[in-house]
Amino acid sequence: xxxxxxxxxxxxxxxxxxxxxxxxxxxxxxxxxxxxxxxxxxxxxxxxxxxxxxxxxxxxxxxxxxxxxxxxxxxxxxxxxxxxxxxxxxxxxxxxxxxxxxxxxxxxxxxxxxxxxxxxxxxxxxxxxxxxxxxxxxxxxxxxxxxxxxxxxxxxxxxxxxxxxxxxxxxxxxxxxxxxxxxxxxxxxxxxxxxxxxxxxxxxxxxxxxxxxxxxxxxxxxxxxxxxxxxxxxxxxxxxxxxxxxxxxxxxxxxxxxxxxxxxxxxxxxxxxxxxxxxxxxxxxxxxxxxxxxxxxxxxxxxxxxxxxxxxxxxxxxxxxxxxxxxxxxxxxxxxxxxxxxxxxxxxxxxxxxxxxxxxxxxxxxxxxxxxxxxxxxx
Length: 379
What we know:
Order of helices and strands: EEEEHHHHHEHEHEHEEEHEEHEEEEEH
Structural class: alpha/beta
Oligomer: single chain
Strand content: 15-25%
């Protein structure tokens, strides 16, 4: 992996909307903004192979369910464009092996697995095409074009989520009333191709003049909120305040919080949602204080194959993420650690799930969502 260290004034924003650009792609070339080094250093890494992509995902140089899937896809695109194949079968086998390897990087976010299943199916379909039969080079070009479309599609989806989410939060409020919201972890341009999911909702509220303030948790132990969300909010001049995770209940008690908005790594059939550790705690606090709790996620984060959140595999991270801070040990040697990267929020605590296709709500009197019915209606 080649690392390019960018000075503070280096242009890392899209000129149109000044959103942070975490993924920079031109056909055959992929760079990612190393999120481990933020906010103190801006480092762009060259991703030249599937192995580079796997390592960037596993080491959390890129994170966020949509961004993980996109970087995995584009790392495959780069590798395909720089590899020679003597047959269509060789292309398909290469794709299968690459996708199988990418799926071992991190287990919880479903977007990666759905992308892999879709790309493999497309490759097999292209291999079977007979009228006319395609060459190896043509199959590569077709597959790469599909992988590249994920970038533009994700940004469009995020903007739709922002619109639907802001509308849901403001629904029933007096015309022109401004609101404050609380968010967790990082769900903005750094976690997606651009704009963001939960942070996209905050961005939409702000752009429409309806946001008083966004509160973000530091999000221990990896500090995605303090390092990344705060970074995005400051750079986009969105009024924001950082709190520690343990301050959330007091914030809800003492301040006028209109809603909590979070992202998702996997939403299952009944609406149970896996998201960054600490999300469940926020949902419990929000429920106690009668504050609406919204999950923002693209349809690619929905996994209807799983019945409940108990079926979700939760990634366990290294104890060093808890025992060390920036390489320095901060806990006594020998202390045991439990470090799940995610928790599962029961559907009963979720007000609605906001997607690019609309808002999933429960039927009156129900504690769970009928996610398959929503997907079928919006297929």
